[in-house]
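chain below, 121 aa
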Amino acid sequence: MAKRLLDLRNVPDDEAADVRAFLDANRIAWYETQAGPFGISMGGIWVEHDQDVAQAKRLMADYQRERQARVRAEHEAARREGREETFATLLRERPGWVLLRLAAILLLLALMALPGYLLWR
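prediction:
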């Protein structure tokens, strides 16, 4: 019976491609399911045969350790070099995007506070 190895919700495309590649390289039979049309169910990568699940999980754990170390090193290098994305850089590069979201947040906070204000008055 197939076992899900990776839920594709919020998984970057490069990570999913890496998982597909290491499964193929190790001759592990797998298939992929696509996300549902309304976003209720997300896609996944499944290992077809029960006897391959342990090896696939071991490979996945190794891959995740390597990826974590690499991404943390890249993030630290970006921080040291001043390339890290901060609120200030985001505001400078995409002011309309940031201001629209801030306005939406303030509107939601006002709507949440409105019932309390009306009861208190």
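The helical segments are 13-25, 50-81, 87-93, 95-120. The chain has a mean pLDDT of 94.
thats it, cya
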